[in-house]
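Quick entry between incubations.
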Amino acid sequence: MAAWSSEVGDGLFARRLLGVPVLIYRLPDGEVVACRDMCPHRFAPLSMGRKTETGVQCPYHGLHFDRTGRCDHNPTGKGHIPAGTHLRMFRIVERHRILWIWMGDAGRADESLIPDLSLVPEEGGAHDNIGNYLHVKANCLLEIDNLMDLSHVNFIHEGTLGNESMRSAEVKVTEPDGKVRAELWMPGTTGGFGPMTGQPCDQWMNMVWMAPGSMILEFGAVPPGAEPVQDPYCYAFHIVTPETDRTTHFFFGSSGTFDETEAAKAQFIREAQIRAFLTEDNPMIEAVDERMDGADFWSMRPAILTNDKAAIRVRRKLEKMCREEEAARRAEAGRVSASEPATQ
Amino acid sequence: MAAWSSEVGDGLFARRLLGVPVLIYRLPDGEVVACRDMCPHRFAPLSMGRKTETGVQCPYHGLHFDRTGRCDHNPTGKGHIPAGTHLRMFRIVERHRILWIWMGDAGRADESLIPDLSLVPEEGGAHDNIGNYLHVKANCLLEIDNLMDLSHVNFIHEGTLGNESMRSAEVKVTEPDGKVRAELWMPGTTGGFGPMTGQPCDQWMNMVWMAPGSMILEFGAVPPGAEPVQDPYCYAFHIVTPETDRTTHFFFGSSGTFDETEAAKAQFIREAQIRAFLTEDNPMIEAVDERMDGADFWSMRPAILTNDKAAIRVRRKLEKMCREEEAARRAEAGRVSASEPATQ
Amino acid sequence: MAAWSSEVGDGLFARRLLGVPVLIYRLPDGEVVACRDMCPHRFAPLSMGRKTETGVQCPYHGLHFDRTGRCDHNPTGKGHIPAGTHLRMFRIVERHRILWIWMGDAGRADESLIPDLSLVPEEGGAHDNIGNYLHVKANCLLEIDNLMDLSHVNFIHEGTLGNESMRSAEVKVTEPDGKVRAELWMPGTTGGFGPMTGQPCDQWMNMVWMAPGSMILEFGAVPPGAEPVQDPYCYAFHIVTPETDRTTHFFFGSSGTFDETEAAKAQFIREAQIRAFLTEDNPMIEAVDERMDGADFWSMRPAILTNDKAAIRVRRKLEKMCREEEAARRAEAGRVSASEPATQ
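Done. Structure below.
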């Protein structure tokens, strides 16, 4: 995820992703363009420049780049443009109110790998809770660890989201369709949040991870013994993207499109989310990152608890994806260097 | 030295020592506990957690650790605790209103090596000047260098503690009982501070270093030719502990337990100490650290003056202690790896 | 360039040059002294000390160093001074209101290499615009790149110094006497700044670089077809010196000694200069440095435009100078190590 659709308005939008400065902008026909935010001439940030009808103009010496990244105008001197003056482009797709970017080779982009965020509600509800963002000073995987082991709710969020009665739940982990699903079923407990707060109930929090960084939470509470039907509005969305190795973009929100009579409910969820992340989760995640100080997770030989199961599976899946991507890249590089002369 | 006893109250006390985050707390029976301030599960700072009647509870997922560092409760899931889930513990001893810590292997701790700070007065005087602390942005040895060569007093502290008449004193260095004692005897000079300020007198400043970082100053002034008797209240205490390679904890204070009629005297000494360190010594020590920028002291080939004698001896002794400790560690490591399988 | 003459007054002046902390001061007989700003005893910054009639005294333990850098007084102990206690000295020369320093071996200093800044006006005009300084968070060569390719004027400074009519000028580069001269002749354009602003005119901006970092701008505008005579007061001066690899001292000003009736003209130029550098050039140069993040310029394979010609020639000349200086240093080191025992 590069950004919420709503973050990219009429202007030039700049964000560092996976260590790379990226520029994102919309053309008049609605196309969204993503490129490296650096002019190939003298390395100026194009985001300090000017959007045109057909592309972007560098602020430093005026080179213009079209939607494909090709330099199509040099206003200085006799207008000569050296061959190969082009931007590094990134495939970007808008879906479910989110801009999804592929930071690798365009040829390897595969839209079928975009996670299914169709539960994100349509825009326009009276109390829309989509589009939240926080910057986290921690490695991205620590944010995923946090979300995939919800037993932390009863400690970090004790009294706001969780309580002692909810602690003994043991996580059940499944892997439907390559996702990782962590189910916490807490029958006969005291409601931790929402309308059942403080009342006897059966409650649940199920977190579903989709590669690489999307996590959807299903949650609910019913009177003891009642059928645990998932409310179609009780979903929370959490998507993480590395800014750098030690900093993370954290996108979040929740469904749904509440009508006027449900304003209080939407408001409650939004405020609980923001308060929890800002004042309870993030200080902890950032403190852990500081303690790790860039060391490899496994080299620190963590004690593994039962409820780590889901987070560990996600880590293992991501490690496997990285290994496979790296192997493919190396194989590709071998083919290229065998058949072609080197180019920029 | 980890802390003044008075710094560790009822709560959890966190301080980085020798680069390691350390947690210190008191149990109801008075025992003081010191451990690494990092949960072995997900590396949360335990100091963000909660002290219990018998130990400390991690703030993140609720693991509890007893006074020996053993994890004795996992409130989540079915309560399973993986074998070997324990904290790194440090030996800590309270003596002379100070908490002394041993950061190495507990088996190599030796209380007889704790320096003798019995001159630190008992608590409870009307004008107690024990418990002062400053954070210094410099390598610990630069603070020791400063204190072991008091000829700097007549330059950095000219007009507040020293003066020109005191400059020509040559340091006399002895090594009683493995200590390093630097004596500055300044007969026929003008009083630099205290009641004899500005008057003809014989005065002295003797600094006694005890490994690794304690320095006690004896000082006084008498009319010319009178017997130079050390006033039992005229001692100043300086103890340094590395926080990191480039930052230092500096603990200081002075005797004694002054009664009401001597309030002005105690107050004078305290204020002179704090003002001198804060506004005169520390800016210089930090400027020197910046100039050295992490380089080895000897590699910078310092010019060695007569009055460096004591500081150099301390540096040589500390270098020897480090070499011996390292050799012992390596010998121990050799024995362990020959006789046992590796463990965490 | 170490400093404007006017920057070094009666006291001790400290500035980091080429990564080295340098102290500069004036003796009563007018001689200017430059030395490493670090005492060879305990590495204190001498600039925190005291200027005397004959040299400088260290603030820490009082060592005194004469104008040649020799330690000629140790006020402590018996006054012994270890052989070889001296400062690293730098050759420094005052010329054209500027202090020029040679940071290499004194034996290799060559005053004939000081660039000719004789166009800098004498002191004392009513509206003197000499002595301006800005600190830039970017590699020094990026500042030179900026000044040697003035086609940026019509983008970064569009509306204040440049405009669209001036864009198509192609730079003409010559190398008179080892200098690099970049001429932008813009006939039949609209005046970009100065008295001809907004009027049809023929205008020019010629930048002349002298090694290593001095750049003099000649500029002017005349009615179309008139003879383009350079106004003797229309020069702007730009001199850069590395503070570190990523930070630069930027000195600037302009001629001339305007009389009272021309006050508005002098004022206009000064204000335009300061505003342009502070709010338009430097933010861009610093953004480029951030994008490069310490990488080698050529390794980033910049697209080379026609108007880069002058900046590229300067880069090539500086690279050649560095290679030659390095080779000479190595040859010298070889001779020294073959004929002499090593000394400090």
